[in-house]
Amino acid sequence: MGKPAAPKNPHSDNAGRAAPGNPARAESGNPDRAAPGNPARAAPGNSDRAASGNSDRAASGNPGRAGGAARAGGPADEGRGRANGGAPTGGGGEGAPRAGGNARRSAARLAALRLLEAVLERHRPLEEALDALPRLDGRDRAAGHRIAAAVLRRLGTLDAALEPWLRREPPPVVRHALRIGAAELLLLGTAPHAAVASAVGLVPRSLSGLANAVLRRVAEAGTAALDGLDVERLDTPAWLWTAWHDAYGPAVRRIAAAHRAEAPLDLTLAPGAPGAAPPPGGELLPTGSLRFPAGTRVTELPGFAEGAFWVQDAAAALPARLLAARPGERVADLCAAPGGKTAQLAAAGATVTAVEREPRRAARLRENLARLRLNAAVVEADVVEWAAGGEAAGRFDAVLLDAPCTATGTIRRHPDVARLKRPRDVPSAAEAQGRLLAAAARLLAPGGRLVLATCSLQPEEGEAHLAAAAALGLRHDPFRPEELPGLPEALTGAGTLRTRPDFWSEHGGMDGFFAARFRQA
């Protein structure tokens, strides 16, 4: 991978980013260690601005609820943490589940627990943690991933729903089990008896009574447990809320709302591939991507084995299209793995050199190109060192730099990003992007064009690079409205691309991306 110090982001170019054997999954990033604690509480008050500071915990009380109260009328204090003698209601409580401890563990829920421990305690990316799980039945693995992703996506909301029934902070394993149970009860539609019994089975027997009592209270409350919650604030770390409010104003609430839903599956179709007829059942988007509902298994779609398409978020497909590579042009794709954009450039007929630093990711890039029956020269090298070597300088008619970033534009696909990234990651990533931009500029032939892209919502990783590009002698080449069919809102006044998760809400949204095009003088 051609990146200096910054970790590779979990790109929304996820077809990209499929691990061998599961090509629909996006690859995770390698974010810095996250601060401990509960990262999803909103700042107090009803304003859309978050409180200053880096802590994601709220002030005292339950500020995510309307009016600041923990619950309308206040919760009854008696019985917190104790069995209340009632059975869960709201769809199937046939009596109170017995606290069975480890003997009643479900493989899927245990997988979800291990994933949450990896992300929230050891600060590992979700997809990396998923790959590290012991071998599981495919259905249990998928179910565990789905539960863990739901918890990470709605972490603040779930903690707020649990808070009235907890006198003190429980041990981490109990906290995670409660989150799993609450997610199944309130978000995933699991039958109450099964949700409670399975979650209780995750905790040590000595604490099973506590878990049982709390989850039975949540089951009895049902979705009323969410009433009055400011879920957008609760589910967005305070530092991100503040940054997005500063950048996008009131749209911060729409961005946060878009993150609550699981992202659909987007495909880029390979022109002229064998069996290239689009798989049935998809929605053709204005920019040419084909969209399927969330949860669609890409490997089961007709044409997958023949290389007729690859997985790539609709927004992630835009930078390569805006580079507009032509047949026979020499094009460099920098930080290229897993290969969605490389595939776009090669399918356009360009002679592509794909540069990737990490051997494992370079291997995945080659595998994806082989499945798609597309050709590109894959170079395993650091972009900065490779460009400085002189051999590649001035060789390319066009360069695509999809730079490693904090990936805050991909949270709807990668909910762990919101829990792993911290404010300090933004300037670090922006500095590394600046070095990559300078290296990319050295590769351009006179008059050559360069597209810089990042899947971050942070302006420091996008718009702020315009000045740096000018200092490198690059001339900004604004995008034109006809280049972004159906997306007029993504074209900024400066002629750059800025997509957000709340765009195309009627179609299911899109990842947040920045892109700008430059020409070498």
UniProtKB/TrEMBL annotation:
GO terms for biological process: regulation of DNA-templated transcription; RNA methylation. InterPro entries: MeTrfase_RsmB-F_NOP2_cat, MeTrfase_RsmB-F_NOP2_dom, NusB-like_sf, NusB_RsmB_TIM44, RCMT, RsmB/NOL1/NOP2-like_CS, SAM-dependent_MTases_sf. GO terms for molecular function: RNA binding; RNA methyltransferase activity. Keywords: Methyltransferase, RNA-binding, S-adenosyl-L-methionine, Transferase. Residues 1-103 are annotated as: Disordered. The active site is at C455. Residues 15-46 have a biased composition (Low complexity). Transmembrane segments: none annotated. This is rRNA cytosine-C5-methylase. The lineage of its organism: Bacteria, Pseudomonadati, Pseudomonadota, Alphaproteobacteria, Acetobacterales.
